[in-house]
Amino acid sequence: MTRLHPAVAAVTARITERSRPTRQRYLDLIAAQRDAGVDRSRMGCGNLAHGFAASGEDKPAIRAGGAMNIGIVTAYNDMLSAHQPYYRYPEQMKIFAREVGATCQVAGGVPAMCDGVTQGLPGMDLSLFSRDVIAMSTAIGLSHGMFEGTAMLGICDKIVPGLLIGALRFGHLPAVLVPAGPMPTGLANKEKQRIRQLYAEGKVGREELLESESASYHGAGTCTFYGTANSNQMMMEMMGLHVPNAAFINPGTKLRQELTRAAVHRLAEIGWDGNDYRPLGQVVDEKAIVNAAIGLLATGGSTNHAIHLPAIARAAGIVIDWEDLDRLSSVIPLVARVYPNGAGDVNHFQAAGGLAYVISTLLEHGLLHPDILTIAADGFAAYTRDPFLASREDGNPAGAEPGLPPARQRIEWRPAPAASLDDAMLRSAGHPFQADGGMRLVAGNLGRAIFKTSAVDPDRRTVEAPVRVFTDQDDVLAAFKAGELERDVIVVVRFQGPRATGMPELHKLTTPLAVLQDRGFRVALVTDGRMSGASGKVPAAIHVSPEALGGGPLGKLQDGDVVRLSAEEGSLAALVDADEWAARDHAVPPPQPLGTGRELFAFMRHGADEAEKGGSAMLSAMDAIV
Q: Which positions ≥6 away from 507 have C-beta within 8 Å?
């Protein structure tokens, strides 16, 4: 067996030691929940009768209590392409459960909002905190105590982290994440990007832009670029919470359905009454969290997970920080280039070898923990294999015997390809695109921030220029259109942190800043807000902590101050005389946002902690009692 890289071992040991007291308290909690918590065997007759009253043909089995009852938590809605395929999953999963003597009930639904729909609009201010709402909604569904296992139906940005955070507080239950897959490839990403830049420059109109976007986002399934949604799916594979390599199989295919069947069957096997009990809270341990971080770095995944991964870990009593990510990034090679870090999308990535190849090559070079507990029967090695459909030999071929249905194909797994099938998309860890994982910590007198380097040209990873300070992204767009940014400039957008506005993504700034960069200017973005998983070639220091609201140093910056941002040096500093800097007052924050329901989230903004801890009011309050 290949020896684990010493830097990976050191970071894991650092996290384990730091987390020792909180992790033990968490494990004690879920053990107590298993032994003395709410479950069907301890319910009063009236409680139990309420729980199975409308269960139809499953009522006798649920009433008897002798078989696993799986609680489905679903993020279905039919507005969002990623979640629309989940419409029929519950009824299918009930059939799949009966095949192995189990039952399913929908425990509850959670909201699923789309940053693509709300990008640049007031609804984006609700986005980050929707993760906490999803976690709490998951907890409400599971609180009924009717279930011995959990199947979570969710794909996108805040949905998977929220589902997982909520389910981890019921960590004595086994759990499986059930994806629905990406939509087929549409308009080429390079062409989409070209039309966006032409629109930003006023060279094409809205109709041309809408036609381009509609050709890109055109059907059911996850958006095909490698943003937060698809990074979610990668991390669930890296943590062993999917049926192996379920992430990137398109919706509506027979293989997709068989992967869902396999997930239900496997969940029924890992309950506490069997010989292979695998509770979620033990599957998600320090090594699994490190594997998720390594996958994020090796594939150039979304910067949003610099917030989500600490929050997920925290729900399991594990404490990680951006220094852990930075230390890992220095030794984890970039083995994938998926748009926006490359030309092809996740369908091309899957065709080139996908996550099975990524996991295989990282294991081969000692860059992943091979010994994590997963939901798969044969451990993490299962995730180096690809699913396919094989014909059954013991059935009724093609329905040849009258009165009997045709035998269904069975799902099997085969080894990942020995080499990448597309060297422009995917490479081995021994011959990567770049030697580091492309997510660096930058720090200085402006605070701590994340800088994603994987899509940024090396000669642009250091920018020193005067700043132009804004408190609203629309003002940046207005300044761009007025020609006020036609120079070397670092654009600062502050009062965008969790406590100020709820930490919206500022992804719509990517295109105008890219236009300026293409015109030859040295350009960068510094913000206490977020960028999308689709952030690309413009250098950016994001998630700046502490945020401007409440005294963070971004609040001291003034137009014309020179700032140095360098991923190579790990620095983020205002080049202002120290005495003058110390004497400066902080800028007055803008009013708290109102309208589009934002006032309902004021308590979350008020109680949120810094981005490096996950930007959560819910987890901050939880820590105070656990």
A: 115, 119, 120, 531, 532, 534, 535
Q: Looking at beta carbons, which pairs linking 587-591 to residues 24 or more positions away fall under 8 Å?
A: 587/469, 587/471, 587/494, 587/548, 587/555, 587/556, 587/557, 589/471, 589/495, 589/500, 589/548, 589/549, 589/555, 590/471, 590/472, 590/495
Element of type H or E holding 197:
helix 189-200
Which structure tokens are listed for 394? 């013991």
Dist. CA 152–CA 180, nearest whole Å: 11
Instruction: Output DSSP code: residue 124.
Output: G
Ramachandran angles phi, psi of 349, nearest 5°: -60, -45
Q: By C-alpha distance, which of 174, 189, 179, 270 is closest to 220?
A: 179
**Which residue's structure tokens are 């989409």?**
192
The secondary element (H helix, E strand) that includes residue 469 is: strand 462-470
Q: Which tens digits make up the pLDDT trace of 110-147?
A: 999 988 888 888 999 999 999 999 999 999 999 999 99
Whole-number Å distance between alpha carbons of 202 and 208:
11
Distances (CA, A) of 17 to 105, 319, 438: 39, 9, 26
Report d(CA 560, CA 549) in Å as an integer: 21
Instruction: Report the candidate in 99, 56, 55, 127 with the shortest Cα–Cα distance to residue 496.
Output: 127
The tokens of 352 are what? 């080139």
Answer whether residue 404 shows pLDDT above 50. Answer: no
Angle at 339 between CA 335 and CA 344, to 5 degrees: 85
Beta-sheet strands, E only, within 371-461: 385-390, 410-415, 439-444, 447-452
Task: Assign 83 to helix, strand or coil.
Answer: coil
423-467 pLDDT per residue, tens: 999 999 999 999 998 899 999 999 999 998 887 899 999 999 999
CA 466/CA 182 separation, integer angstroms: 42
> Which pTM does this prediction carry?
0.94
β-pairing, 447-452 vs 540-545, is antiparallel
3-state SS track over 424-448: CCECCCCCCCECCCCEEEEEECCEE
Tokens of 22: 């909180």
Pairwise CA distance, residues 569 & 566, whole Å: 5
